[in-house]
């Protein structure tokens, strides 16, 4: 697959605002018994959403697929704990799954298959992944790469006219 052409850099401030906007929507849908963060990217929005919704039971589903921008095979490294699975009645009902973004939707599809009745929220969504999420805040085009603040640092950028993404 061709590498994404456009860059969508997100600052910490913007990310925090987008997570709060996501929480305003989720607050209309809940209540939720627990949050499940899809690691690692989902840990950051999960902490913010949990704080805003007052949720203290937080678990992880650990999945890896990308080596920087290259997508490899999905690896499910860890599922939810028995306690949290029980809270969701085995199907995820009343549980909130949080990730930073959905791109092709592969990760989302796998997690949804584990907890079909859970509510799945992502901060950002690309068109291919959008049908997988119940709630998201901002859509970007499929050929855009989102640069998260925990993956980036301030650096010089060449002018757009000279070919900057
Ligand atoms: O919709 P998809 O095409 O499956 O892509 C979305 C997933 O890819 C990224 O995670 P990644 O596997 O890079 O791991 P990380 O969260 O540890 O960075 C991102 O955090 C999502 O979980
Ligand atoms: O656009 C993206 N940005 C960061 N990580 C990702 N993992 C899949 N797509 C993306
Ligand atoms: Mg991830």
TrEMBL record:
State a single Gene Ontology molecular function: magnesium ion binding
The pathway this protein participates in, as annotated, is:
Purine metabolism; XMP biosynthesis via salvage pathway; XMP from xanthine: step 1/1; Purine metabolism; GMP biosynthesis via salvage pathway; GMP from guanine: step 1/1
Q: Which residues bind GMP?
A: 103-107, 145-146
Q: How does it sit in the membrane?
A: Peripheral membrane protein
Q: Report the subcellular localization.
A: Cell membrane
Biological process according to GO: GMP salvage; purine ribonucleoside salvage; XMP salvage
| Positions with a binding annotation for Mg(2+) | 100
InterPro entries, from UniProt? PRTase-like (IPR029057), PRTase_dom (IPR000836), Xanthine_Guanine_PRibTrfase (IPR023747)
Subunit details: Homotetramer.
Identify its protein family.
Belongs to the purine/pyrimidine phosphoribosyltransferase family. XGPT subfamily.
Q: What is this protein called?
A: Xanthine-guanine phosphoribosyltransferase
Q: Which organism is it from?
A: Bradyrhizobium valentinum
Designated gene of the protein:
gpt
């Amino acid at each position: 697959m061709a590498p994404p052409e456009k860059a969508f850099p997100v600052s910490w401030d913007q990310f925090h605002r987008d997570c709060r906007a996501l929480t305003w929507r989720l607050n209309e849908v809940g209540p939720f018994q627990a949050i499940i963060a899809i690691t690692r990217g989902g840990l950051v929005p999960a902490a913010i959403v949990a704080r805003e919704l007052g949720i203290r039971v937080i678990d992880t589903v650990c999945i890896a697929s990308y080596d920087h921008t290259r997508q490899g095979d999905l690896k499910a490294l860890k599922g939810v704990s028995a306690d949290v699975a029980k809270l969701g009645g085995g199907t995820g009902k009343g549980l909130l799954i949080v990730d930073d973004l959905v791109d092709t939707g592969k990760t989302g599809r796998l997690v949804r298959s584990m907890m079909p009745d859970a509510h799945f929220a992502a901060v950002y969504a690309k068109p291919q992944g959008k049908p997988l999420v119940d709630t998201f805040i901002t859509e970007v085009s499929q050929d855009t790469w989102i640069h998260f603040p925990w993956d980036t640092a301030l650096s010089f950028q060449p002018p757009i006219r000279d070919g900057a993404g």
